[in-house]
Specification:
mainly alpha; about 80% helix; globular
Length: about 190
């Protein structure tokens, strides 16, 4: 469990520097250069992610069950995951109404992913992993929206074609992940 916790601290810590210490971050980028900063950011992110994966893998054979599984939660999680994949697609597909409406669809995707997995799982490792990501995403999303308002950031252009493409890509990706990739990558068939 220690590896999981350390990994979460490193990964979410690196992804929180802009939130908690923007002036320090900007000073480091100015001092080191953007490429060196990105290299260090990427290296620490990968280290944290690796520790999360390793720590979660170590915790799975002997789980600490916190409560009995609730009926129907896997199906609720599956529905939320379709939304999470559509939000993730909205971060990358240009000119879609979802990005225009929510501003930061990737962070909302993380929130939705974490909530879905909190509903469907009942072990200490699950709650640490998905709960940490949910708390981080809630704080990050609020901070990003405040920053957008403070900077007067304009909403991006959107089109029906971009929005339809976003929903189709997200729904197809969710189906492929649920049907094949989740079992292959995680070892669990979600529904």
């Amino acid at each position: 469990m220690t590896e999981l916790i350390v990994g979460l601290i490193i990964f979410l810590g690196v992804h929180s520097v802009r939130l908690v210490a923007p002036d320090w971050r900007n000073a480091q980028i100015a001092r080191l250069g953007a490429n060196t900063w990105k290299l260090g950011y990427t290296a620490l992110s990968l280290l944290g992610f690796g520790l999360i994966v390793w720590g979660f893998h170590l915790a799975r054979p002997t789980p600490t069950v916190l409560w009995p599984r609730l009926p129907g939660m896997n199906h609720a999680a599956a529905g939320l995951m379709v939304i999470a994949f559509v939000l993730l697609a909205a971060a990358f597909v240009p000119r879609n109404h979802i990005r225009r409406a929510v501003g930061h669809p990737m962070v909302l995707s993380v929130k939705t992913w974490a909530l879905a997995h909190l509903l469907a799982n009942n072990t200490l490792a699950d709650e640490l992993l998905f709960g940490s990501f949910l708390v981080w995403a809630v704080i990050d999303y609020a901070a990003l929206r405040r920053r957008d308002r403070a900077e007067g950031r304009a909403k991006p252009e959107a089109s029906v074609a971009g929005s339809v493409t976003t929903v189709v890509i997200g729904a197809v990706a969710a189906a492929v992940f649920a049907k094949w990739l989740h079992l292959w990558l995680i070892g669990v068939q979600p529904v």
